[in-house]
């Protein structure tokens, strides 16, 4: 495993970071809690010391399971990354920016983006309780809230740093302009964004800025929610409640399948799976600090960690990029 300094902080994160969205269950068709907790522990045991979660993942369930899973480990050697700013329990009293309707126990629940100073402080206390810890290593706003001044949100984060409740602050899903606005108030450490072989838009502006200004980039969905594993093309059946049924339709699936077929021999030569090859390629892209990878069980978690054992030459990376250009 490689460990990388995040932006302008002294945080050392594992290059492969455990992404805890799927274990929360909502939007992913559910998961067994026992398997989820074992996947977290297997990750840690194989060098993945950084865990990324959020209150919204499973409406608190993901954070609770992370808290259970890390019991017995040295907290000082684990980095907990969480978020704030998505409210689903009505505590925002109608304030904030309506985002979408989520489903919980058969009920439709409106979710709001809400990042006022008071709400940030409130959410952190709830996250600390669920995670069973007294500090969060990196706290990130989950999505921009256009009803709250960025400076107000950053003020809340600065207060939490001063109180020792968080070690560093970051943002997620921010445009470059929003990152710059945030940094006028607080020298944020990172921006967490969607990035994959099929989604490289941040290379146009965010990556050059990050390289020049000491901003860390944390990437999620490097596997495009499982599409780049290749499994979808072998067994395309997903649960009816799985959001990926709709999500995958944005891609030219025939071209994606052809690309995966083209790079499969390289993965085989490396003794790796397609997933591992994709994760390793992603980790080697400019300005990418760490790559989030989800796992539903211990086997998947171990495989994700071992992706960092793959060596890719400049020629092999060029080959992958050449095939990518055909999509």
TrEMBL record:
The keyword Lipid biosynthesis is assigned to this record: no
Keyword Oxidoreductase: yes
Gene3D superfamilies the UniProt entry points to: NADP-dependent oxidoreductase domain
Any matching Pfam family: Aldo_ket_red
Keywords from the UniProt entry: Oxidoreductase
Domain NADP-dependent oxidoreductase: 16-320
Protein name: NADP-dependent oxidoreductase domain-containing protein
UniProt organism field: Myroides odoratimimus CCUG 10230
């Amino acid at each position: 495993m490689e460990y990388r300094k995040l932006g302008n902080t002294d945080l050392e994160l594992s290059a492969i970071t455990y992404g805890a969205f799927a274990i929360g269950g909502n939007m992913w068709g559910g998961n067994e809690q026992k398997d989820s907790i074992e996947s977290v522990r297997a990750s840690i045991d194989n060098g993945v010391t950084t865990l990324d979660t959020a209150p919204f993942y499973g409406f608190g369930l993901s954070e609770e399971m992370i808290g259970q899973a890390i019991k017995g480990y040295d907290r000082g050697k684990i980095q907990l990354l969480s978020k704030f700013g998505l409210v689903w329990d009505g505590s925002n009293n109608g304030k904030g920016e309506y985002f979408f309707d989520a489903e919980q126990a058969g009920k439709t629940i409106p979710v709001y983006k809400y990042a006022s100073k008071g709400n940030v402080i409130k959410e952190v206390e709830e996250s600390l309780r669920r995670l069973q810890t007294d500090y969060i290593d990196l706290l990130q706003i989950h999505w921009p809230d256009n009803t709250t001044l960025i400076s107000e949100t950053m003020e809340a984060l600065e207060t939490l740093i001063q109180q020792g409740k968080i070690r560093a602050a970051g943002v997620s899903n921010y445009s470059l302009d929003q990152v710059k606005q945030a940094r006028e108030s607080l020298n944020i450490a990172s921006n967490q964004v969607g990035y994959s072989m099929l989604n490289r838009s941040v290379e146009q502006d965010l990556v050059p800025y990050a390289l020049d200004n000491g901003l860390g980039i944390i990437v999620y969905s490097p596997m495009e929610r499982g599409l780049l594993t290749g499994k979808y093309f072998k067994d395309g059946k997903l649960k009816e409640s799985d959001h990926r049924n709709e999500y995958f339709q944005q891609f030219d699936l025939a071209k994606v399948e052809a690309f995966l077929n083209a790079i499969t021999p390289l993965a085989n030569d490396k003794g790796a799976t397609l997933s591992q090859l994709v994760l390793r390629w992603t980790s080697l892209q400019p300005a990418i600090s760490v790559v989030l990878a989800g796992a539903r069980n211990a086997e998947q978690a171990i495989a994700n960690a071992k992706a960092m054992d793959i060596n890719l030459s400049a020629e092999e990376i060029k080959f992958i990029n050449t095939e990518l250009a055909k999509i």
